[in-house]
């Protein structure tokens, strides 16, 4: 089982109509505890058509692809805990006109002007984020979320045995400050920490 930490990612796009506000928007991103992992500028009309392929056939599709390729964009892979939902809450509703009434503090209300020119994009779901990041950054590797079974297996194999020993010792010693005592005990008895032994050199 991999012991790596899984951090959720989402795709953000600063659209052509908000590109002049990109510094302010990126400042909001960083202050919201996101890490910017990747950056891409400009899309060709063909790339726009491919990116919005699921909208093909809808009446606004030509306007959407023309708008998105009309000038520079900034595509960003953002990472943090609960990245997808958090970024969606920051940018607000899709229609900027309605957002100005219902969510006046959101980024689309501040920088967007219509349903089409709404300043920003955010992935709708984990699967959408995975697909969109792969489209924008073909060489990126997106770790899948571990299943509940894998998490429970990891805890039972690597965490629970050591923690159980520590709690047992805690009950035996009954220290004045149990939290500090347990923290020290876990540091000293970390199974992943190399053990240093004194070895006498042979004479």
TrEMBL record:
GO terms for biological process: cilium movement; CTP biosynthetic process; GTP biosynthetic process; negative regulation of oxidative stress-induced intrinsic apoptotic signaling pathway; UTP biosynthetic process. It is found in: Cell projection, Cilium; Cell projection, Lamellipodium; Cell projection, Ruffle; Cytoplasm. Belongs to the NDK family. Coiled coil: none annotated. Keywords: Cell cycle, Cell projection, Cytoplasm, Developmental protein, Hydrolase, Metal-binding, Nucleus. Pfam families: Dpy-30, NDK. CDD domains: DD_NDKH5-like, NDPk5. It comes from Seriola lalandi dorsalis. The keyword Metal-binding applies. GO terms for cellular component: cilium; cytoplasm; lamellipodium; nucleus; ruffle. It comes from the Eukaryota. The keyword Aminoacyl-tRNA synthetase does not apply. The lineage of its organism: Eukaryota, Metazoa, Chordata, Craniata, Vertebrata. This is Nucleoside diphosphate kinase B. Signal peptide: none annotated. One of its GO terms (molecular function) is nucleoside diphosphate kinase activity. Major role in the synthesis of nucleoside triphosphates other than ATP. Residues 7-144 form the Nucleoside diphosphate kinase-like domain. Its main location: other.
């Amino acid at each position: 089982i991999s012991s790596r930490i899984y951090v959720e990612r989402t795709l953000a796009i600063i659209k052509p109509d908000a590109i002049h506000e990109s510094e302010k928007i990126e400042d909001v991103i960083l202050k919201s505890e996101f890490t910017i992992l990747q950056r891409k500028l400009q899309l060709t009309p063909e790339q726009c058509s491919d990116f919005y392929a699921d909208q093909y056939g809808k009446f606004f599709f030509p306007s959407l692809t023309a708008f998105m390729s009309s000038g520079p964009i900034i595509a960003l892979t953002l990472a943090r805990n609960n990245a997808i939902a958090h970024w969606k809450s920051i940018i607000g509703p899709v229609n900027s006109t309605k957002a100005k009434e219902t969510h006046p503090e959101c980024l689309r209300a501040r920088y967007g002007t219509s349903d089409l020119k709404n300043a920003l994009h955010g992935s709708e779901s984990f699967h959408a984020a995975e697909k969109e990041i792969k489209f924008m950054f073909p060489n990126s590797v997106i770790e899948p979320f571990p299943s509940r079974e894998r998490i429970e297996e990891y805890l039972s194999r690597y965490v629970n045995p050591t923690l159980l020993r520590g709690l047992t010792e805690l009950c035996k010693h009954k220290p004045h400050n149990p939290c500090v005592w347990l923290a020290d005990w876990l540091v000293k008895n970390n199974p992943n920490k190399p053990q240093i032994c004194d070895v006498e050199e042979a004479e």
